[in-house]
Amino acid sequence: xxxxxxxxxxxxxxxxxxxxRFVCLENKGTxxxxxxxxPSRPCRGGIMTVHHFPA
Amino acid sequence: xKYLPLALAFTTPAHAALRFGCATVSIQRLDxxxxxxxxxxxHLHQIVGGNAFNATMEGxxxxxxxxxxxxxxxxxxxxxxxVMFFKHPNGTYKRVPIMQNTALPNxxxxxxxxxxxQHDFVSNGKEKITAFRPVSHEDFVL
Lengths: 55, 142
Description:
Chain A has strands at residues 20-25, 46-51. By secondary structure, chain A is mostly beta strands.
C-alpha cells in the first residue's frame, strides 16, 4: 500500500493528499492537530508526518 | 468465582492496536513498490524493517529476511517513506535529520513508528485484521 504522490502539488489551505498528514511539533510529544498541508510556519519541536493506510 | 475476571474480560469492548518502533536500515534511492527494479529510483527514501529490502521485491519479502530493525522480531516487513530536505537560501540542500519517537524507549536510530489498528484507536470498525500482509501491486494506486 502507498500513501501520497511525489507529483502532488500542495495548495496552502487545500484538502491535502489522502492519508498524508503533518503535525507541527511544539515539543517532541505534540501529536495534534494533524494538518492536511505542510506547516506554513517554523515548528519548534520539528515536523512529524503521519501516513494513514489505507488512504 | 474463579472464572469471573475472564468472563468480564470478554464483555468489555476491546480495541486492538499494535505499536512498535523501527530504526533506519538505510536511506537510498530505491522504491521496489513504485519503481521496481529501477536503480536509482526517482526519489530518496528512508527504509526501515527487514534485511531483505531490495530494488526488486517479489513474493513474501518478510519470509526472505532474517532480521529487522523493528522492535518486534516476529515479522521482517519493510516500510519506507520520503525524506525531507531543507533548501538553504544559497541554493544548497541539506537533508533534515530524523528524530526517534519520544514516546518509545530510547535506542531507536531515527526510523519511524508503525501502528496497526483495526480502524482507529477508539473503534474496531468493521474491517478484518490484515496486519503483516505483504504489500502487493493490487494495493497500489498511483
